[in-house]
Design brief:
CATH superfamily of chain A: Flavodoxin domain
Number of strands of chain A: 6
Number of domains of chain A: 1
Helix content of chain A: 25-40%
CATH topology of chain A: Rossmann fold
Largest interface: A-B, 67 and 66 residues
Strand content of chain A: 5-15%
Distance between the termini of chain A: 18 Å
CATH class of chain A: Alpha Beta
Radius of gyration of chain A: 20 Å
Oligomer: homodimer
Number of helices of chain A: 8
CATH architecture of chain A: 3-Layer(aba) Sandwich
Low-confidence stretches of chain A: 63-74, 272-285
Amino acid sequence: MKVLWIFAHPEQRSLNASLMREGLSELAASGHESRVSDLYAMGWKAVLDASDVHAPAPPGPQGPAPLAASRGADARLTVGAGQERAFLYGGQGEDVREEQRKLAWADTLILHFPLWWFGPPAILKGWLDRVLVQGFAFGLRGDDGRTLRYGEGGLAGRRALVITSAGARESGFGPRGVHGDIRHVLWPLLHGTFWYTGMAPHEPFTVYGADRLTEAGYRAYARRLRERLRGLPYEEPLPYRSERGGDYDGRLTLRPGIAPDGEGLDVHLGRGGPDRPDAAPVRETCGAAALRG
Amino acid sequence: MKVLWIFAHPEQRSLNASLMREGLSELAASGHESRVSDLYAMGWKAVLDASDVHAPAPPGPQGPAPLAASRGADARLTVGAGQERAFLYGGQGEDVREEQRKLAWADTLILHFPLWWFGPPAILKGWLDRVLVQGFAFGLRGDDGRTLRYGEGGLAGRRALVITSAGARESGFGPRGVHGDIRHVLWPLLHGTFWYTGMAPHEPFTVYGADRLTEAGYRAYARRLRERLRGLPYEEPLPYRSERGGDYDGRLTLRPGIAPDGEGLDVHLGRGGPDRPDAAPVRETCGAAALRG
């Protein structure tokens, strides 16, 4: 594997930092390559702002002008399209481009963070906001003109794993736990980010009871993480349904015959077999592929 | 109402900025008070770092020392406890304290943002990470020694509303839509943040198709927002179950008799009536109340 490990914890002596070192050591021992983006150590700029976005070129007979010259005082910042223009015409910051190059290189993305307010810390959310831009990670079109999303997209061909830690006990994150099933809590990442951009999301690796973990408990989690990483190349991802696989209609809702009595987020998990014609491996499309040297 | 309106969009000429002006004007016309935290305009610091956290005092006979003096070179940054110490002993930054004072003043919190990667922009995630600290918003205990969460907590007695915008069409965010039901997508905010800290979460107000909205479409949403805000004081919040209301057991999972065949996040919605003994209004506890002058 070629693993890009995005790490978002402010403390290098944290449980999570120790786990990352275990994981990287396991990857090296198994002959895999890895690169790390330690967002706090890098001083990653979390906030998407005007410097990430380019205004539209003024209308003219020449088509779009170079973007540095096209930024008028009246230009209104529109985020999706403005990020795409910056991506296409060289207007992105070097920090963003470097992360995109790492993603283009990788076949495996790991997002590793403590669960804060049931999601990633702001610094990691800002990595997603600024790096996964339209035209690179999503917003691409297939040969039939339809937008590639959910199973296809600029990052297709990659697997993606969340490694996270929660102070609470595991039972509270089960199917009937008060916090919600961990896969539902992480839906915006697993389905809305990984799967949306074409990456294959794997079952998250979660350290529970992180605030009260004993040394023996830590060693058990470290061992499980090493085993998990060794098996990752052979592991089946979560079987989310592909948008263009036949299960959704033109309004992007599940067809009546699919999980007819189902409700909740699990209706988007296919069961494999004949009702899941999209079971073939996801294809890599343009997007990140264009950046690979 | 006393409304604290947290706004997170980088462009003052955006659809969302226009909607906020409509909303604030409606609140004023209806005789409500409001305060605004426009996070981009304020240059809000998104990233929780060592400056938000205080190290533990060295052990000694005097109990905890003033925190400014207790920060040893070997101190390991532990986020939850470190933020609580900073809150209790005056070690927080003035930006964080000011937001906590606004929350203490408010009876209604509005989080208003464009949906980026199915969640709030990093600058708003960082507001949650830095402002809603242990000891202020959560981690408080009731008279019986149990932790107050989910229906009770430091911010109890307040209502909370998400106003957001999505580029996609509404059908994709329905119960069988590919993006997931909007209430499930927003679970980390509605249940994991609002309800967790004791606030009463209301049905989110979502602008769909935001990238293609016509002027007439905008006016319709603006009218609906005004109506929604006028009715907000009389509106029932989402009926999530209280942690201490009798529906959950000691492992924080739903008791077998509650929604026995249910699965997914909606099992945490009570139906009112006799199986929901917690239907009484949430009580305000310590937490934010301590900050109110």
